[in-house]
């Protein structure tokens, strides 16, 4: 255990990471955001899910630094009188959970499909054609389509009840082609390498070669796109919520908070939409910055000098 | 014969994030007008860097730290960018290693040839085409007029290298630097390209700096050989002497490692270890950790490249 | 041909290997002279090659890039199934065996690859790479015995057995090639196919690997099929040399015979092109380029560049004919004694 | 080149078949053609009669082929809400969306090429760092949020620009309602097209920059330097022409994808185009309109992709001469 830790501590990865201020700061911010969102039930000053604590008279109060604000609601309240800070923390938790869940599903689907089409020629054409069609439609559009179909299947009320798992399913189904294409491309590249031939000369079975030799070597591109995909999934969720295909207002994600606040900016209550917006951008931005760093680190093609 | 190019005490550094590494260490060498010089070494010896530093085109973190590159009596190493451009591709041409990669895939051969002409000569398009056709004929490309409109992928590797040679001839340069021009090609094509280069240099009295890892190729084309090891020249002299009576232990080892020199001997002569990376070059003689003759002095003092017997210059404490 | 000669370890019989690279049917549409036609692109990599490899010998296959020598090596190893023809190991046909039946032969024949950077799995330690074949083929061995075996082969190829936990990127090119050889030796094979094992290495390292291979051959009584484009290396290491051109065998002869008295015009041209230390150039010029293996010339594949060409060469494929002193030549001109 | 074009078009048709199949599948399972035709108030007997008459009891494939036949003739069904053939509804809404996409594409192409090239050629300069920093923020900003911010700043706080609608439009060619010809129309276009371009612009800048940097490292660019030609020629002819190839393939598709993002921008700006129409049709469960939207947008994508592929073929001599990609 100690040696593993030392190995990690002394690795290139950590060495380069610590020398990149942008990566370090991004990581710190991300850590704070993730921890505070998952600790929301403990640290949030109010419980936005408990109607008993919400008073409609408190609605649309501006943040505390504003003359009309009160210290009770640090970042003000939303149109229903919920404490915005607490609602944002809970909302961010939902956004992150959906993001991670969707990426886990995408990665699972994408890796399996990518491996299959990289290794079995006959499946390749069909699977990749589907992926192409889906990508040329843009994953957003596909997500909206699937969301719309689900809403018709379940009806609006039922849809809202199971919105979170549905959103994971929708975004997962919409975005797997990214993974499948990446995995397939690296399977095809790895397959040509001589170590795979060496494994075949030894007589290892195809499944074993795929599992033990090829799969581990396709993981770094998977890691690279995974960070970006988490950011994309959170954005997709926000977009779906904005279109009314996402989380209901009773259990808002950051996206549905922004949506709910949109109409109030015309009456001057900008904070209901802008503050969750800033939080959402910050969350996605730090993930993207980390993603960029990981990509540069794992694929230093341009910096070889 | 007059001196065409003289490199004096050249040092080339690569500035990495953590530290600066020396890729070329105190190299001095000269080429006379019309002379053919071979630069031989294994990968990482710094031979390509040397070639590129002449026209100040070292890839990115590398730069010339100190030293002079005197071309026709002027130190071109300090030339401004625009002034350097009048030398590059004009008086000094380069031929790269892999002809599949050196020609731009989206531009026609004609475009890639004409732009070189226009960069260095003030001529009309018709005149430029005429020059291109003439040079393509010189490298034995059949029906050159038609070929001008074709793209690189329509040519074989050998043909592409001929085209690259034709491009390097466009401005009638005084010196051609050929960086491993045949490494990517098959033996029969290699022989043709080398033959062609030799013929062109002889007829036009052009200087040639042939950079390669292949001693046998160099020995057939050049008049003098410089052997490089870990950024320095360890032996320099006329081709026949170096090829048949090498003096520096590294050259001796390198020649002994060639199967064709082994004769009936079953085992090849092998040098132990590998050439050190730039970060790990030993103090003193860079070859000291692989040398069989090594003594205490080798680990402390860097040997100078001095003239020994037969007019050969050797950088070794033990060669008399 | 007789097959039960105990001296013969591996026989290659009329092996043909083609690759279809034409893709889907949409990719095959061509527009020629105002008509739409469908054309398949098939790379004819190996076209009917036969020869035997005797026990304990080193047989080299030389040829220029694209001549099919690597494809032949992989077909012999069973990495590609041949389109037709047979591969025999000690007189038994192995090219059509199932994986389970082939398993035994996998321990008898192993392969060393060209690129020391690609032939080792970058995510596996050296020890793991070497243990894998032993565990797979000899599951009865105990942990300690496997470790012993790994240490033994590592020592054999000159790599410190203490370095088992290191990853391939921590080794130099020459060292990796040694590890690659160790992996091949881990199963104590009789026959090793080496596909350009030194082409990616520097001269001084090449000598180390060649010496190692020759030492191992002596110690372990190995038989080599050595694939190379470098004629001077081939001249040094081989007992018998086969010259390939565009998927066909031109000539095969004991080394000395081939280098001193090449019979086939292509062999002659190839030999004259080797740069020789300190000699002026005097090579035989071949006209034109190598034709594409997709559109092979009719008749003798070499006829487009041969100076002895006549009408028969343009239409009839020359057979592999046995000549004097264990040689095989496939040339009409030699047969007609025009050369 | 001819064979190449034929191939691309054939592939495009194949994709259209797949899309129409999926679209029909949705319609078949969720749609209610009877309601589309006569509304809700009919007796079960009448419904059954109409169903029989419409051939709704035929096997799935028979119905699909009929759907295809009608679709090719421009008949995609009737909208339940608008009480009109869907093709008419879409034709009325399409100009708004297409003009928006057109303007956004102009912004994307016009800005990304110079900025991307600059950032690739001078990676260390301050301005390049600003471009790259800005682009990563841009990538991280959901398009509807950008739109909301724009409205908040320029409409609510500053009051400079209108926050919704298309403004004054002029009918040209007899069917096309254009906002490009009036001052008000153009003013209404500014924010929506900036918002729509905000998602693609940073992506394009990053794409162009990284492709160009890779090309600048290539042997042939190094060789071009060694030939002593002018830097401008090396950058804009040697490097940029090669950068263009991957940018065309990826970028062309991305421009098509902007149509998808119009759903979001149009919703924020209440832009009366196909995107907001689609979202409305989802809430109204107007299946015929939804499915037609999918088919029409699919057709747009296929056409864009095919054109992009053909342009790629024209730019790349390897394809132009041999017809292989």
UniProtKB/TrEMBL annotation, chain A:
Keyword DNA-binding: no
Keywords, comma-separated and alphabetical: Cell membrane, Membrane, Transmembrane, Transmembrane helix, Transport
Descriptive protein name: Peptide/nickel transport system permease protein
Any Gene Ontology CC annotation: plasma membrane
Species name: Desulforhopalus singaporensis
Pfam families registered for this protein in UniProt: BPD_transp_1, OppC_N
Subcellular location, principal: membrane
Membrane-spanning residues: 21-44, 94-116, 137-156, 162-179, 222-249, 269-291
Automatic annotation (TrEMBL), chain B:
Gene Ontology biological process terms in this record: peptide transport
Topology of this chain in the membrane: Peripheral membrane protein
Domain ABC transporter: start-end pairs: 7-255
Keyword Transport: yes
GO cellular component term of the entry, any: plasma membrane
Family assignment from sequence similarity: Belongs to the ABC transporter superfamily.
Name this polypeptide is given: Peptide/nickel transport system ATP-binding protein
Provenance organism: Desulforhopalus singaporensis
Lineage: Bacteria, Pseudomonadati, Thermodesulfobacteriota, Desulfobulbia, Desulfobulbales
From TrEMBL, chain C:
GO molecular function per UniProt: ATP binding; ATP hydrolysis activity
Keyword Transport: yes
Organism lineage: Bacteria, Pseudomonadati, Thermodesulfobacteriota, Desulfobulbia, Desulfobulbales
Keywords from the named record: ATP-binding, Nucleotide-binding, Transport
Protein name, entry field: Peptide/nickel transport system ATP-binding protein
Key word Protease present: no
SMART domains: AAA
Superkingdom, taxonomy of origin: Bacteria
Automatic annotation (TrEMBL), chain D:
Biological source species: Desulforhopalus singaporensis
Keywords: Cell membrane, Membrane, Transmembrane, Transmembrane helix, Transport
ABC transmembrane type-1 domain location: 94-312
Protein name per UniProt: Peptide/nickel transport system permease protein
Lineage: Bacteria, Pseudomonadati, Thermodesulfobacteriota, Desulfobulbia, Desulfobulbales
Presence of keyword Zinc: no
Signal sequence segment: none
Chief place where the protein resides: membrane
Entry membrane topology: Multi-pass membrane protein
Record's subcellular location: Cell membrane
GO biological process, one term: transmembrane transport
Zinc in keyword set: no
Family of the protein in this entry: Belongs to the binding-protein-dependent transport system permease family.
Transmembrane feature ranges: 12-30, 96-118, 130-154, 189-208, 243-264, 290-315
A Pfam family it matches: BPD_transp_1
Gene Ontology cellular-component annotations: plasma membrane
């Amino acid at each position: 255990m100690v040696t593993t830790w030392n190995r990690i501590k002394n690795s290139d990865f950590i060495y380069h990471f610590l020398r990149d201020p942008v990566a370090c700061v991004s990581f710190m911010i991300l850590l704070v955001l993730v921890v505070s969102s998952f600790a929301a039930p403990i640290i949030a000053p109010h419980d936005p899910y408990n109607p008993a604590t919400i008073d409609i008279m408190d609605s649309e109060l501006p943040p505390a630094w504003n003359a009309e604000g009160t210290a009770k609601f640090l970042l003000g309240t939303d149109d229903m009188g919920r404490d915005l800070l607490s609602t944002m923390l809970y909302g961010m938790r939902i956004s992150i959970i959906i993001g991670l869940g969707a990426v886990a599903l995408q990665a699972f689907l994408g890796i399996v499909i990518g491996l299959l089409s990289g290794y079995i020629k006959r499946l390749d054409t069909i699977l990749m054609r589907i992926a192409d069609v889906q990508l040329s439609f843009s994953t957003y559009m596909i997500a909206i389509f699937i969301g719309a179909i689900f809403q018709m299947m379940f009806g609006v009320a039922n849809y809202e009840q199971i919105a979170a798992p549905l959103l994971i399913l929708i975004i997962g189904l919409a975005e797997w082609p990214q993974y499948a294409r990446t995995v397939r491309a690296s399977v095809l590249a790895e397959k040509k390498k001589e170590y795979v031939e060496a494994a075949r000369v030894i007589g290892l079975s195809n499944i074993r070669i795929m599992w033990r030799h090829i799969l581990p070597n396709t993981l770094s591109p998977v890691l690279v796109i995974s960070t970006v995909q988490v950011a994309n999934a959170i954005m997709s969720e926000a977009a779906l919520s904005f279109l009314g295909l996402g989380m209901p207002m009773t259990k808002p994600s950051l996206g549905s908070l922004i949506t709910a606040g949109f109409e109030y900016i015309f009456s001057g209550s900008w904070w209901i939409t802008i503050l969750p917006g800033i939080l959402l951008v910050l969350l996605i931005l730090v993930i993207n910055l980390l993603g960029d760093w990981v990509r540069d680190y794992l694929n230093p093609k341009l910096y070889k000098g | 014969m007059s001196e065409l190019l003289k490199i004096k005490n050249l040092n080339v550094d690569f500035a990495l994030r953590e530290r600066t590494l020396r890729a070329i260490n105190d190299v001095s060498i000269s080429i006379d007008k019309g002379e053919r010089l071979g630069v031989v070494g294994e990968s990482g010896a710094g031979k390509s860097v040397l070639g590129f530093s002449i026209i100040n085109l070292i890839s990115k973190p590398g730069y010339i730290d100190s030293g002079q590159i005197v071309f026709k009596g002027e130190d071109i190493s300090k030339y401004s960018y625009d002034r350097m451009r009048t030398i590059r591709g004009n008086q000094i041409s380069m031929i790269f290693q892999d002809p599949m990669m050196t020609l731009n895939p989206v531009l026609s051969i004609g475009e890639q040839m004409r732009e070189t002409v226009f960069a260095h000569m003030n001529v009309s398009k018709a005149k430029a085409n005429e020059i291109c056709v003439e040079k393509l004929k010189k490298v034995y490309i059949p029906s050159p007029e038609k070929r001008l409109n074709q793209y690189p992928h329509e040519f074989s590797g050998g043909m592409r290298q001929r085209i690259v040679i034709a491009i390097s001839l466009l401005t009638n340069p005084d010196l051609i630097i050929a960086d491993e021009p045949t490494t990517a090609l098959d033996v029969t094509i290699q022989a043709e390209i080398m033959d062609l280069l030799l013929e062109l240099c002889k007829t036009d009295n052009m200087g040639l700096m042939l950079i390669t890892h292949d001693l046998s190729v160099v020995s057939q084309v050049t008049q003098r050989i410089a052997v490089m090891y870990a950024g320095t020249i360890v032996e320099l002299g006329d081709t026949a002497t170096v090829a048949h009576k090498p003096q520096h232990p590294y050259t001796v080892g390198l020649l002994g490692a060639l199967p064709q020199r082994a004769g009936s001997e079953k085992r090849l002569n092998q040098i132990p270890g590998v050439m050190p990376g730039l970060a790990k070059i030993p103090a003193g003689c860079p070859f000291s950790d692989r040398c069989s003759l090594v003594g205490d002095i080798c680990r402390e003092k860097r040997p100078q490249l001095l003239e020994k017997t037969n007019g050969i210059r050797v950088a070794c404490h033990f060669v008399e | 041909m007789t097959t039960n000669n105990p001296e013969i370890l591996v026989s290659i019989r009329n092996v043909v290997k083609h690759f279809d690279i034409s893709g889907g049917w949409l990719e095959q549409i061509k527009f020629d002279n105002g008509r739409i036609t469908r054309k398949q692109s098939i790379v004819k990599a190996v076209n009917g090659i036969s020869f035997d490899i005797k026990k304990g010998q080193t047989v080299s296959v030389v040829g220029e890039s694209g001549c099919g020598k690597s494809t032949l090596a992989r077909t012999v190893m069973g990495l590609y199934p041949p389109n037709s023809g047979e591969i025999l190991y000690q007189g038994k046909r192995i090219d059509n065996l199932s994986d389970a039946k082939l398993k035994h032969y996998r321990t008898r024949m192993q392969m060393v690859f060209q690129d020391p950077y690609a032939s080792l799995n970058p995510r596996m330690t050296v020890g793991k790479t070497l243990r894998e074949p032993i565990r797979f083929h000899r599951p009865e061995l105990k942990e300690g015995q496997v470790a012993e075996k790994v240490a033994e082969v590592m020592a054999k190829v000159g790599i410190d057995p203490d370095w088992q936990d290191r990853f391939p990127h921590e080794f130099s090119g020459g060292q990796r090639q040694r590890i690659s050889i160790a992996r091949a030796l881990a199963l104590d094979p009789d026959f090793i196919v080496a596909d350009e094992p030194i082409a990616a290495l520097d001269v001084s390292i090449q000598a180390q690997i060649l010496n190692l291979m020759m030492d191992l051959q002596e110690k372990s009584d190995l038989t080599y099929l050595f694939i190379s484009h470098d004629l001077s290396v081939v001249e040094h290491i081989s007992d018998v040399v086969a010259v390939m051109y565009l998927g066909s065998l031109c000539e095969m002869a004991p080394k000395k015979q081939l280098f001193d008295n090449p019979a086939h015009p292509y062999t002659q041209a190839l030999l004259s092109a080797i740069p020789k230390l300190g000699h002026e150039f005097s090579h035989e010029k071949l006209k034109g380029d190598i034709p594409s293996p997709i559109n092979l010339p009719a008749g003798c594949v070499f006829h487009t560049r041969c100076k002895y060409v006549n009408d028969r060469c343009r239409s009839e494929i020359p057979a592999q004919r046995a000549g004097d002193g264990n040689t095989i030549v496939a040339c009409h001109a030699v047969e007609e004694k025009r050369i | 080149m001819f064979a190449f074009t034929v191939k691309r078009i054939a592939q495009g048709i194949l994709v259209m078949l797949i899309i129409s199949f999926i679209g029909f599948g949705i319609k078949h399972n969720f749609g209610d053609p009877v309601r589309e035709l006569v509304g809700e108030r009919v007796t079960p007997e009448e419904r059954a009669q109409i169903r029989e008459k419409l051939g709704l009891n035929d096997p799935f494939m028979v119905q699909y082929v009929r759907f295809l036949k009608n679709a090719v003739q421009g008949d995609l069904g009737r909208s339940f809400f608008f009480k009109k053939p869907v093709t008419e509804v879409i034709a009325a809404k399409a100009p708004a969306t297409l003009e928006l996409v057109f303007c956004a594409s102009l912004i994307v192409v016009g800005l990304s090429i110079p900025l991307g090239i600059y950032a690739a050629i001078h990676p260390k300069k301050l301005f390049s760092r600003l471009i790259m920093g800005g682009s990563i923020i841009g990538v991280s900003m959901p398009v509807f949020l950008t739109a909301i911010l724009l409205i908040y700043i320029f409409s609510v706080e500053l009051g400079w620009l209108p926050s919704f609608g298309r403004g004054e439009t002029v009918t040209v060619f007899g069917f096309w309602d254009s906002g490009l010809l009036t001052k008000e129309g153009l003013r209404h276009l500014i924010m929506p097209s900036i918002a729509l371009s905000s998602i693609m612009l940073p992506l394009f800048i990053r794409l162009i920059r990284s492709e160009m940097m890779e090309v600048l490292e290539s042997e042939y660019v190094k060789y071009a330097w060694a030939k002593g030609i002018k830097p401008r020629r090396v950058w804009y002819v040697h490097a940029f022409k090669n950068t263009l190839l991957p940018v065309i393939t990826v970028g062309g598709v991305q421009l098509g994808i902007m149509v998808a993002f119009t759903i979001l921008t149009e919703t924020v700006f209440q832009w009366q185009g196909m995107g907001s129409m689609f979202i409305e049709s989802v809430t109204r469960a107007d299946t015929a309109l939804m499915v037609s939207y999918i088919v029409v947008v699919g057709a747009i994508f296929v056409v864009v992709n095919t054109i992009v592929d053909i342009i790629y073929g024209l730019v790349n001599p390897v394809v132009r001469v041999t017809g292989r990609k």
